[in-house]
Specification:
Blueprint lengths: L1 H17 L3 H4 L4 H12 L6 H9 L1 H29 L10 H32 L2 H25 L19 H12 L5 H23 L15 H19 L1 H4 L1 H21 L7 H21 L20
Helix pairs in contact: 5-6, 7-8, 7-13, 8-9, 8-10, 8-13, 9-10, 10-12, 10-13, 12-13
């Protein structure tokens, strides 16, 4: 009996040693988890190009671009179709509303692509470039754009200026570089005027560019009906945004920022006077001060390009973090 009991104990011990048990070989056990971890270790990683776009934040930028495109398309449709149909005294458009739907779709797609590209390029530049260098360069571009915009506006009043007027909308696009540079220069100060001014100035630049192309004579005047034209509203938006940016940068950029703020306020006042139908005010009275304000800000940025509270150690490689 004793020998049989000892033999049975030995058999049970051998079975236990040979059986890995449910925790080692069962489904969902330690063994399965170990096999899955081993498979993941040998699994090829994501393509470098995909990781590159992820590091650039491409998906987030694409979503912002789509939202911006939809908002702009809806705003344009409302301005050209909805407002004339509900606001008394506003002249309607002879074109079919369906045409504006198609144009709105084109505007939405183009805006989405532009915003996505611009934000992606900005992320890349911020990751691999020196901010002072690009602030200095962008300031120079903005100053040149302000001068060209002033010259084009004044030349548009010449008798034979039909060839000049279509190009009035081009130099204002260079002001975008100045908006970016000013925001980069002062964004670490945390001023609420910076964010609001950046948004208004950027929207104003885009609107001035589009409005100058749509309006045959992009100049303000009390004799022009209706007084509230897309060009007038765009110039006023850019003037207010420029004034806010200049006010936020006073401590950093000095007297030139004060000059820019004063010129921008003068441009906004000219728009208000024209809309009030007090006296005939030409577009030059509103445009030229705003354009010269960006000349002043551009020169100031070239002379003082280093962002506030910035250190050279913050510039690194875009793909340093591969996690």
């Amino acid at each position: 009996m004793t020998d049989a009991t000892e033999s049975a104990d030995r058999d049970r011990a051998a079975d236990t040693a040979g059986d890995p048990g449910p925790t080692a070989g069962g489904d969902g056990g330690v063994g399965a988890a170990h096999d899955a971890a081993t498979a993941d270790d040998h699994r090829p990683g994501r393509p470098p190009l995909l990781r590159f776009f992820e590091a650039l934040g491409f998906r987030r930028h694409a979503r912002l671009g789509v939202v911006a495109g939809i908002v702009l398309a809806v705003a344009l449709y409302g301005f050209f179709v909805a407002v004339p149909s509900i606001a008394p005294g506003v002249r309607g458009r002879p074109e079919s509303p369906l045409l504006y739907v198609v144009l709105g779709f084109v505007v939405a797609v183009a805006t989405a692509l532009f915003v996505t590209t611009a934000l992606t390029v900005r992320t890349l530049a911020r990751a691999v470039a020196s901010p002072p260098k690009w602030v200095r360069r962008s300031g120079g571009v903005a100053a040149a754009g302000g001068l060209l915009w002033t010259a084009g506006t004044l030349a548009g009043f010449a008798t034979a200026a039909d060839a000049v007027r279509p190009w009035i909308s081009v130099p204002v696009l260079l002001v975008v570089c100045g908006v970016w540079a000013t925001h980069t220069r002062i964004k670490r100060l945390g001023s609420p005027l910076d964010r609001v001014g950046t948004v208004l100035a950027t929207a104003g630049v885009a609107a001035v560019h589009v409005a100058a192309l749509l309006t045959p004579a992009p100049f303000l005047g009390a004799s022009v009906e209706p007084a509230l034209t897309p060009f007038a509203a765009s110039v006023a938006t850019l003037a207010v945004g420029t004034a806010l940016l200049a006010a936020a940068a006073r401590a950093e950029l000095g007297a030139l920022a004060d000059v820019a703020a004063g010129l921008s306020a003068l441009g906004a006042l000219a728009v208000g006077v024209a809309l009030a139908d007090v006296v005939a005010v030409s577009g030059a009275v509103a445009v030229v001060p705003v354009a010269l304000a960006w000349v002043a800000l551009g020169v100031a940025l070239r002379g003082s390009p280093t962002p506030a509270n910035w250190s050279p150690e913050e510039v690194g490689s875009l793909l340093d973090d591969d996690s």
